[in-house]
Structures are given as C-alpha cells and as structure tokens.
C-alpha cells in the first residue's frame, strides 16, 4: 500500500509541474533507440517531465536527432504503440494542459521520412491554451479528428506516418509536440 501511495503522489507532483501533452491515443515515448540517436540526456529530460516543451530537451547537437519531430522519439521504440485506424474513422484525443500558454495549435499527419505535413491539418486552433481565460474551451483538452480518406496509399506502413499534436506558446516561446504512430488499415 505504501508503494502505491508514493507512486500516486509522485505522479501528482509531476502533473503540477507539467505544461501539456497528449494523454490519448498513446503517443511516442523515449527509449533506447532515442538514446542512441539523441543522447541519454534528451531521454532523461522527457522521462523527468513528459509534458515539458521541446526547448527543454537537450539534443547536444546530435546530427541525426531532430527534437522538433516527435520530440526526437523514435519509431523503433514505439512499434507496440502503433494505432490501427480506418479511413473516415473519428479519433478522440485527450490532452492535459496544466500550464496553458496562448498560441496556435494543430493536429496534422506528418510523413516521418521527410518531416512534412500530409494534406490539410486534421484540426487547427488559431488560439489555444489561453491562460488569460478563466476556463479553457472544452475542445482544448478533448477533441476529435477524422482520418482522411484520400491519403493515396500513404500511411499504410507502420512508422511512415504520425498524427502530430503541435502547440506553440507564443509569449512563452515554448513548443510542444506529441506524435501518435498509426497506420490506415
Ligand atoms: Cu510551459
């Protein structure tokens, strides 16, 4: 019992310190492959606070590490996290935003080989997570996107595509990303 109580209170503290991240569907997590590409310090930063901004993740200039794609998290560490969606499927997202920072946000499909957007954003916010509001709009933390039907054969192989939640806190100058690995089946 003591162990589980300690675990819960540790999670609570981490949440209070947090800024924001996607809690559902499962998003790419750091692991051994990320450590080899981006360095152990980058992995440690995410493990210490999975909701911190990209700017807090040190890549130490590792040439093949791109923190600005999926926080540097690698598909090789996440092969068990690949979501299977169908064209036209409505996918529910849940996000926690304990420390909001006003700015634009979107969820887009990213071709991971080129770090480019596929098609149009699935959802787009001109202003998101506005800390000046007494209460955030409900759709900041719970929203849905629809899997496009016109991907033209893209995103059928695991690792090729992610749904990337992107949020830029304009005044805070903090960038947030989480990537959901998926295939269209
Ligand atoms: Cu923040």
UniProtKB/TrEMBL annotation:
Domain Chitin-binding type-4 positions: 19-182
Entry cofactors: Cu(2+)
A Pfam family matched in the record: LPMO_10
Keywords in alphabetical order: Copper, Disulfide bond, Glycoprotein, Metal-binding, Signal
GO MF assignments: metal ion binding
Highest rank taxon of the organism: Eukaryota
Signal peptide per UniProt: 1-18
InterPro entries: Cellulose/chitin-bd_N, Starch-active_LPMO
Family of this protein: Belongs to the polysaccharide monooxygenase AA13 family.
Protein name (record): Chitin-binding type-4 domain-containing protein
């Amino acid at each position: 019992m003591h162990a589980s109580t300690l675990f819960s209170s540790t999670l609570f503290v981490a949440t209070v310190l947090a800024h924001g991240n996607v809690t559902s569907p499962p998003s790419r997590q750091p692991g051994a492959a990320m450590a080899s590409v981006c360095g152990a310090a980058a992995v440690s930063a995410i493990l210490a606070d999975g909701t911190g901004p990209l700017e807090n993740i040190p890549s130490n200039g590792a040439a093949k590490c791109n923190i600005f794609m999926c926080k540097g998290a690698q598909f090789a560490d996440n092969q068990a996290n690949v979501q299977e969606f169908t064209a036209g499927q409505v996918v529910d997202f849940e996000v926690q935003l304990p420390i909001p920072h006003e700015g634009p946000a979107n969820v887009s499909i990213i071709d991971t080989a080129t770090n480019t957007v596929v098609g149009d954003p699935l959802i787009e916010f001109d202003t998101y997570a506005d800390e000046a509001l007494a209460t955030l709009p409900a759709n900041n933390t719970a929203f849905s996107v629809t899997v496009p039907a016109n991907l033209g054969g893209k995103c059928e192989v695991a690792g090729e595509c992610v749904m990337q939640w992107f949020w830029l806190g304009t005044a805070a100058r903090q960038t947030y990303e989480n990537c959901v690995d998926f295939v269209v089946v």
